[in-house]
Amino acid sequence: MLFALVGVLGLAIGSFLNVVIHRVPRGESLLRPASHCPQCTAPVRPWHNVPVAGWLLLRGRCADCAAPISVRYPLVELGTAALFVAVAARFGWSASLPAWLYFAAIAVALALIDLDVLRLPNAIVLPSYLVVPALFLPAVVLERDWSAGLRGLVGMAVLFSFYLVLSLVYPGGMGFGDVKLAGVLGLYLGWLGWAPLAVGTLAAFLLGGIAGVALMAGGRAGRKTALPFGPSMLAGALIALFAAAPITDWYTSILLPA
User: Membrane-spanning regions, if any (predicted)?
Assistant: First the structure.
C-alpha cells in the first residue's frame, strides 16, 4: 500500500517537476500560463497531462502541431516515482518520510536544472533551509529523536563551512550555489549519521572527478570548462542514503583487517 501510494505521488510530483525544471531557471510562474506546447502554444488537454500515459497516448508529439515532445518528460516522471518508492522502502511509515520524499523531489529538479543551465536556483535551495527542518520536526518530537535533529544541524553547518572554504580557496572550481546546496545536504546526511555525512561528501567529489575525466577523455570538456557539480553532490548524498553502512563496513575492513 505504501509503495503504491508513494509511486502514484511520485508520478504526479514528477509531472510538476517537469514544469519546475523548465520554468524556474527562466524566472517564469509555475501557475500561469497553464501547460502548453512551446512550439504552437496550444494548451495541453487535461487527459494529455496524465503522467507517462499522456506522452504515450500522444506518441511523443503535440496533439495540435505534431512537434516532438522530449522523452525526458516521462523519464522524469518515472524516475521520480522510482526514487519515491526507494525512499519509502528505506524509511517505511516513519515520521521522517515526508522530509525524505521532499529531498527526492528537489534532487531530481536541481540535478537537471544544473545540467541544463549550470545553476542551482535560490528559489529551490534557500526555502529548503526552512522546509527541511519543519518536515523533520515531527520525527524529532514524535519519535524523540533529538540527537538526529541536533546532528543534522551540526552537519548542515559543517558541510556548508567546508564548501565555503573550498569556494574561497578555489573560486573557479566551486560556485556559491554548490555552497548553499551543501548546507541542505549536510542537514540530511547529518540526520542519518556521521558516517553517511562522510560517505556522501567523499562520493560527491569522486563522482565529480570521474565525470570530469570522462568528459575530457571524450573531447566534450577541457581543463577550464565549467561543469555542474550539483548532480555529483546529490548523487553522492543518495549513495550515502542507501549504501553508507556497507561502504563504511567495507572501508573499515580494509583499514582494520580481521
Answer: 100-118, 124-141, 153-171, 191-217, 229-248
Report the C-alpha gap between 47 and 36 in whole angstroms: 13
- C-alpha–C-alpha distance, residues 110 and 222, integer Å: 24
- Exposure string of 99-135, with b = 16+ CB inside 10 Å and e = fewer, is bbbbbbbbbbbbbbbbeeeeebbeebbeebeeebbeb
* pTM reported for the whole predicted model: 0.93
Encode pLDDT of 146-179 as tens digits: 999 999 999 999 999 999 999 999 877 788 999 9
Residue 64, classified by CB atoms within 10 Å of its CB into exposed (0-12), middle (13-18) or buried (19+), is middle
Handedness of CA 23, 27, 28, 29 (dihedral sign): positive
* Residue 223 pLDDT greater than 80, yes or no: no
| CA angle (245 as vertex; 2, 141 as ends), nearest 5 | 55
In the chain, where are the structural domains located? 1-93, 95-258
Of 148, 105, 93, 100, whose CA–CA distance to 18 is shortest? 105
Radius of gyration of the CA atoms of the chain, in A:
20
